[in-house]
Amino acid sequence: MSTQWPRLNLAAGPVEVTARTLRDQAKPVLYHYDPAFIEFYAETTDLLKQVFRTRYDVVIMHGEAILGLEAAAASMISPGDKVLNLVSGVFGKWFQDFIEAYGGETIEIAVPYNDAIDPEDVRRVLQANPGIKFLSVVHSETPSGTHNPVREIGRIAKEFGVITMVDTVSGLGGEVLSPEDWGLDVAVAGPQKCLGGTPGLSLMAISPDAWKAMEARKPKPLRGSFLSILDWKATWLDQRRFPYTPSVTEIYALRSVLEQALEVGMDEFAARHQQIAAACRAGVRALGLDLWPVRDEIAASCVTAVRTPDGLDEARMRAVMRRKYGVTISPGYGELNGKLFRLGHMGPAQAHPTVLAAQLAVFERALNDVGYPVPFGAGVGAAMATLSGWDDSAG
Ligand SMILES: *Cc1c(COP(=O)(O)O)cnc(C)c1O
């Protein structure tokens, strides 16, 4: 291997994991029906319930979170079902493919990819279209660095008896969820975003209404498929069996990150992400740069999306950060490529003043390197100035 590995992976996921997660993952691979693994798995799902703050069933599907998102569509949508798809970014738009692949009919509310969905628009469209059965929404639109008011949207959906499918892949951990209170029926998260774990699993909270919708799917419930959520109910939830061999070592890593989050406490864990995100925004602004989201209130806590200013070759700047200083940050994704770039602060290894300071310092260095002069220390200083409330011993 000739390419040097980075020193800091501050990408938009997967992200740097903590030393403790690395250590905890390095365990003997157990046979999945070993009683010790069954116990380990059951304890892990209990911890996942605590992280989701739910009493709903939780299901872990063994593939990156796209599996859980497609499974939600595949398991619930019957041909001809009307699905209200809320689009404020790349992932929201992609969900339409899943809706239509499983015979659904899409009704869309879209906003520019630097804005968020207005819950009152959702109410208006649900009032005008009484046939809508499902609603899909992205909680934290990682590519846009924005988040949607999923609590308000979910509550409105419930008033209309609409089942919600929520992509909270990068939302869980950056905000404290409450599936019951927020009206989330299928919430899908990933370990490799704010939880700071390894990629490869879909973490799902499933409401009783969602189970009913799966049983009611036409022409018949989806069973005997990698995409079937009901298969997990019939096996793990009902009988402590598995529909296929689970990803044993990913479960070790998941258990570790769930424990680390719960030791801090979910309120403090999310608050840390929010504090670091606010500090990062202050740092970016102090460098004279603009944020991509139109309002601070909709800025995500997982990444900070920065609008590419005129005169900056952002691809070159990122390449300099990576090649000269070993720091990985993410570009804009899909149609946002070039328009923005993203500073990263998701996961306990990243959402910390030390790492933010290093990131902003290297960012300032790289901007100067590519001929976009900024004053050294201005971003770092402004970010640190906001962090007087930080305390590693809190929580
Ligand atoms: C990371 C992420 C996913 C998973 O998608 P990948 O392209 O496989 O990483 C889905 N939705 C959101 C909002 C994400 O941030």
Q: What's the total number of strands? A: 14
Order of helices and strands: EHHEHEHEHEEEHEHEEHHHHEHEEEHH
CATH superfamily of the largest domain: Type I PLP-dependent aspartate aminotransferase-like (Major domain)
The chain-level mean pLDDT equals 98
Keywords:
single chain; 395 residues; Aspartate Aminotransferase, domain 1; Aspartate Aminotransferase, domain 2; seven-stranded mixed sheet; three-stranded antiparallel sheet; 14 helices; 14 strands; binds pyridoxal-5'-phosphate
Write up this protein.
By secondary structure, this protein is α/β, with parallel strands linked by helices. The chain folds into two domains: 8-15 and 266-394, Aspartate Aminotransferase, domain 1 (Alpha-Beta Complex), CATH 3.90.1150; 19-262, Type I PLP-dependent aspartate aminotransferase-like (Major domain) (Aspartate Aminotransferase, domain 2, 3-Layer(aba) Sandwich). The protein has helices spanning 19-25, 35-52, 66-76, 90-101, 119-128, 150-159, 179-182, 208-215, 230-239, 248-264, 266-286, 314-325, 353-369, 378-385, and strands spanning 8-9, 57-61, 82-87, 105-110, 132-138, 140-141, 146-147, 163-167, 186-189, 202-206, 303-307, 327-328, 330-331, 340-344. It is globular. The mean pLDDT is 98. Pyridoxal-5'-phosphate binds next to strand 6.
